[in-house]
Write a structure and sequence with these properties.
This protein has one domain: Rossmann fold (3-Layer(aba) Sandwich). Helix content is about 50%, strand content about 10%. It has twelve helices and eight strands. It has a six-stranded mixed sheet, with helices on both faces. Strands 1-2 form a two-stranded antiparallel sheet. A hairpin with a 2-residue loop joins strand 1 and strand 2.
């Protein structure tokens, strides 16, 4: 299974030519204090040697950065044929008045935002929208739960991408106590009917769940802490995500068990490798609609190591449940949340 952070990191780390082991110990005898002139500037031999090693370190750093840039550019180029296909898909939707909703769900730091940016990079902005709703207002709390989402649904010829969706109620809210047991159970009991009506009335619904390992998530959180360009991504919820890892696994299991259906199935994206995740998400989206002008030279078959059906993921989680003894250790969530009365179904 592909679990490396990305191919570029592996290439760089294995390049012995870019290894820098630090400054050597410099002899401070009298000869090293001898003053010489270099390009009109006077300096000691000791200062010259130090300057040499500083330049060597800077040069190695520049080489490393250059190599990263080359690999990133290679990765971006590899996505372009599929980004071109996404434009064809848009044209098809416009022509035939089709509608697509794509849900991006998953653990924090799983790569949802970066994938959304690559998917939409060359799309016609007039015919897609990215929706990331804030926490509900007091008025919205009194309304039908789905109302705020329905108001964002696509018009004919449009794609709407939800960067987190109504499945907040199935994942984040029960873990952090943002909803009651009744609210959670009402949602879980009603969401499949809601999605069935949505699909029946002509909307293509794609439900993506991004999955990373606990170790990879920790690595990405650490980068967010230390990288000024990523620190804005780190939220209070992120800080607790590692401690509540098992809780999120439990609600993920319940969500798949109750909301993975033949009409609105879940697609699991293994996203430890961001590049592979982005490429395969594009394939999943393109395969959802039989649009015109598909490039027959492209490989549209998703990588089975990256794309997993919701049914298969549920089997994996059920096996884990058996091994661990009915999810031992999930003590943070009131287990009565998951005691459903299915007599009405």
């Amino acid at each position: 299974m592909k679990t490396n952070h990305n191919d570029s990191q592996e290439i760089i780390d294995n390049d012995d030519m870019l290894e820098f082991t630090g400054f050597p110990e410099i002899n401070h005898d009298e000869k090293m204090q001898e003053v010489i002139e270099v390009n009109g500037k006077k300096m000691t031999l000791h200062e010259l040697v130090e300057a040499y090693y500083r330049l060597k370190q800077e040069n190695l750093h520049l080489k490393k950065q250059s190599k990263k840039a080359v690999v990133r550019r290679r990765d971006e180029i590899s996505l372009k044929p599929y980004q071109s296909e996404l434009i064809k898909l848009q044209h098809y939707l416009e022509k035939h008045q089709g509608k697509i909703i794509i849900l991006f769900e998953g653990r924090d730091a799983a790569g949802k935002g970066g994938t959304i940016r690559r998917v939409t990079r060359y799309m016609n902005e007039k015919h897609y929208r990215i929706v990331a709703l804030p926490k509900p207002t007091e008025t919205q709390r009194t309304q039908w739960f789905f109302q705020k989402y329905v108001s964002e649904f696509p018009r004919a010829g449009e794609i709407v991408i939800f960067d987190r969706s109504w499945y907040n109620r199935a994942m984040v809210e029960p873990v952090f106590g943002f909803c009651t047991k009744e609210e959670y159970q009402n949602f879980m009991s009603g969401v499949t009917g809601f999605e069935k009506d949505l699909v029946r009335q002509g909307t293509t619904l794609i439900k993506l769940y991004f999955s990373v390992t606990k170790e990879e998530q920790a690595y990405r959180f650490e980068r967010r802490k230390t990288d000024p360009l990523r620190q804005w991504k780190l939220s209070e919820v992120d800080v607790q995500a590692q401690d509540r890892w098992d809780d999120f696994t439990r609600v993920k299991y319940e969500m798949l068990k109750r909301t993975h259906t033949s009409i609105a199935p879940w697609v699991i994206i293994r996203s430890n490798n961001k590049q592979e995740a982005r490429l395969n998400v594009m394939k999943v989206i393109l395969n959802a609609v039989d649009y015109d002008g598909r490039d027959s030279n492209l490989d549209f078959v998703p990588d089975s190591e990256i794309v997993v059906s919701g049914a298969r993921e549920l089997e994996i989680l059920q096996a884990e449940q058996i091994r661990q003894g009915n999810f031992k250790g999930y003590s943070s969530i009131d287990t009565s949340f998951f005691d459903f009365d299915d007599s009405d179904n």
